[in-house]
Amino acid sequence: MTLDHLRRNFLQKLVASAAAVPLLSPYRTFAQADRASTGSHPGTTLRVALMGLGSYAARVAEAMQSCKRAKVTGLISGTPSKLQEWGTKYGVPEKSRYNYDNFDRIKDDADIDAVYIITPNAQHRDQAIRVAKAGKHVICEKPMAVNAKEGQEMLDACAEAGVKLLVGYRLHFEPKTLEVIRMRNAGDFGNILFFQGLSGFRIGDPSQWRLDKALAGGGSLMDIGIYAINGARYMVGEDPVWVTAQQTKTDPVKFKEGVDETIQFQLGFPSGAVASCLSTYQMNHLDRFFMTGERGFAELRPATGYGPIQGRTHKGELTQPHAMHQTIQMDEMAGILLDGNTPVVPVDGEEGLKDLKIIDAIYAASETGGRRQLRLSK
Ligand code: NDP
How far is CA 316 from its chain centroid? Predict the structure, then answer.
């Protein structure tokens, strides 16, 4: 069976399952609308080079096989054997395979519109700036950078180069998440009062880059706690104005100076809503968002895993069909980058920068246990 056959089969199944379940959300995303139509869109495919061919890039590359509007057309890696293997697997010709020394040459590669940076966190800033200077759009994994200062530098470089900067916030396109947001906007929960975000797992191999401050920029908060930060914002629908935080460490050998093991933090929102969140590398079974308002509640559990996301509200189970997050994300990002579409929940550099400002404030607050004021918008 050819790739086109596979893709068509997948899309047919997706459209059939979408038709079987009434689309409850008026936020019918671009990708949903596009899949439901029969028209083709010549010349509107987002051609993406993947940078950093590790475990998450492998997931993205596989998911992109089912994309209707995005395609892997370039590869950037420090490992020659991966370039060879992935190049063959995804049909990327040698001329569009690069390493970290020579990828500035993508400037002259007419088959690449955007670079998706999926490398260790501390590398994102420099790589994004180089991609921007090469005149290509930047899609960057979370956390966008390791602090707000670096994040701002990325925004500035992209603005100067006239390219867009997006962050790989895949849950911003996830159907059950969008349904909760739709219900909130419709007033179904009444005024939001409280959000709880639990994000964590027990991390293994002590030698991995995630436990190396120089590559990770921090610890659990950078990697997994950011889901609770970002989730608090899109679930409550506001940006927090203050934060408090407490840090605990039970294993200072594994979690060295500057690498947080467990952080609890609280956020306060302009409406008076509050959030209580946990970020940890030391406990399993933590992937839950809970939100309650004056008239109802929503729970997502799992809230951020690769899916299916599951959830319920005071009105019953959420039944929106599951599709691979990265497939929807990349089709939606094609709409944003090529057509100027506006997503329901932003995925741009400003959005990534807000989370970095909160991360900076959480680390600072956890030093003293005091409250830090936040000013996320300019
Ligand atoms: P991996 O360790 O699996 O892959 C990272 C890749 O980066 C490596 O395979 C390597 O690719 C490249 N790399 C370049 N320099 C280094 C270095 N010094 N040490 C290690 N790797 C290096 O990490 P992940 O794929 O899990 O994570 C990458 C990024 O993606 C992170 O920012 C992470 O937060 C994010 N992520 C996002 C997820 C999401 O759901 N949105 C899920 C998982 C991760 P090569 O050999 O090709 O150079």
Answer: 27
Give the model's pLDDT for residue 307.
Answer: 87
55 Cα: distance to centroid of ligand 1 (angstroms) = 7
Domain residue ranges in the chain: 20-170, 189-314+348-373
Extract the tokens encoding 272. 């008076």
User: Is the sign of the CA dihedral 169, 102, 129, 131 positive or negative?
Assistant: negative
CATH code of the region 189-314+348-373: 3.30.360.10
From 119, 351, 356, give the residue whose CB has the most ligand 1 atoms within 8 Å, as the site to mutate: 119
- Contact partners, residue 4, CB within 8 Å, separation at least 6: none
Letter string b/e over residues 228-239, b meaning 16 or more CB atoms within 10 A of that residue's CB: bbbbbbbbbebb
**Residues in the chain where the model's pLDDT stays below 50:** 1-42
Question: 282 C-alpha vs ligand 1 centroid, how far in Å?
Answer: 21
Max Cα–Cα distance, the chain, nearest Å: 60
Question: Please, what's the b/e burial string for 123-161 (b: 16 or more CB within 10 A of its CB; e: otherwise)?
Answer: bbbbbbbbbbebebbbbbbbbbbbbbebbbebbebbeeb
| Both tokens assigned to 139 | 């899609």
Contacts of 13 (CB under 8 A, 6+ apart): none
Could you give the CA distance from residue 245 to residue 264 in angstroms, rounded to a whole number? 6
pLDDT digits (tens, 9 = 90+) for 301-315: 999 999 899 999 999
Q: Domain 20-170 falls in which CATH fold?
A: Rossmann fold (3.40.50)
- Which of left, alpha, beta for 21 (phi over 0: left; psi -120 to 50: alpha)? beta
Task: Determine the 3-state secondary structure of 373 from DSSP.
Answer: strand
Active site (annotated) includes residue 68: no
| 315 included as an active-site residue | no
- Which of the listed residues 62, 85, 117, 141 should we mutate to test ligand 1's pocket, taking the one with most ligand atoms within 8 A of CB? 141
